[in-house]
TrEMBL record:
GO molecular function ontology, one term from the record: 2-oxoglutarate-dependent dioxygenase activity
InterPro entries noted in UniProt: Phytyl_CoA_dOase-like
The protein, known as: Phytanoyl-CoA dioxygenase
Organism, scientific name: Candidatus Yonathbacteria bacterium RIFOXYD1_FULL_52_36
Length: 292
């Protein structure tokens, strides 16, 4: 790319991701929809949204979210049925994808049932303070890399594209220090204690060196999210994070990304025929998150 085009691209992204424009102008409509339909949260949802707003990340479990429903066993059994077809589908060969990069939305997939559950959508929307769009969902096994160098997402970074994001991670296997836990700096999103450090540089982002991050952020302010299978994290990945550097043990993790509608990359799933009809029975905020 010529340097003029490159600087135009950066300028365009810098403008669209500046807070006043992103918040007040570009996302005015989804914010108004949320304001008109503000959900009433239960105690668990409120704790999670407050944690997200305070730190940019909060942890829970499938059992806390869905008491008595044995959700972990259901998800693990479903994952097991897909395992024979799991393979690397991108240049990141250490990642085994359990379904296509752009799957067809299947409402019978129990992972989909979870993410379109109104309680989950309400958590994401309440953190984002707008009606969000589900942009992708993945089930990925991170295979051990031994002593190899960490690649992009395994290194410290901020997701670059938006001012605020909400991802939901579900660990399907026990995750310890050896299996690539998600690592996050609480209070590193826009406007918080560490929000000014290593600012986003859209479109491709910024990957500050390990030493620069450890100089700027004391170790005790970094959290390593090890956890049992069934651990669920809600996280704003515009904050400083890394993960998936599995040394000796694999990690199976589900990810769902709820975004402001401004996210410019294509949605990474397709809709089955007749989806519009099926969607009529869904709650309006859930329908909005799935609609093309
Ligand atoms: Fe990331």
């Amino acid at each position: 790319m010529s340097s003029i085009i490159k600087s135009l691209v950066y300028t365009r992204f810098a403008i669209r991701t500046s807070w006043p424009i992103w918040w007040n102008i570009l996302n005015r409509t989804p914010r108004a929809l949320f304001a008109k339909n503000t959900p009433i949260l239960d105690d668990t949802q409120r704790r999670l949204v407050e944690g997200l707003k305070k730190d940019g990340i909060v942890a829970t479990t499938l059992d806390e979210l869905f008491p008595g429903q044995h959700m972990l066993a259901t998800l693990q059994a479903y994952a097991k049925s897909l395992e024979p077809n799991a393979k690397s589908r991108t240049k990141k060969l250490f990642l085994k994808h359990y379904w296509d990069i752009t799957p067809q939305l299947d409402l019978n997939n129990p992972f989909i049932a979870i993410i379109i559950n109104k309680r989950i959508v309400d958590i994401a929307n309440s953190y984002m303070e707008m009606w969000t769009k589900l942009k992708y969902y993945t089930l990925i096994e991170t295979t051990p890399v031994g002593g190899e160098d960490a690649v992009q997402s395994q290194r410290w970074h901020r997701d670059p594209e938006e001012k605020r994001m909400c991802k939901m991670f579900i660990y399907l296997t026990d995750v310890d220090e050896e299996s690539g836990p998600f690592i996050y700096t609480p209070q590193s999103v826009y406007g918080k204690k560490y929000g000014h450090l290593f600012p986003q540089r859209p479109p491709e982002g910024i990957y500050p060196p390990e030493e620069a991050v450890s100089r700027a952020i004391p170790k005790e302010d970094v959290r390593v999210f090890t956890g049992k299978a069934g651990t669920v994290l809600f996280c704003d990945t515009t904050g400083i994070h890394r993960g998936g550097y599995a040394r000796s043990k694999p990690r199976l993790m589900f990810t769902a990304f709820f975004s402001a509608p401004t996210f410019s990359e294509p949605t990474r799933y397709t809709h089955p025929q007749g989806f519009a009809k099926t969607a009529e029975s869904l709650d309006p905020a859930v329908r909005y998150t799935l609609e093309p």
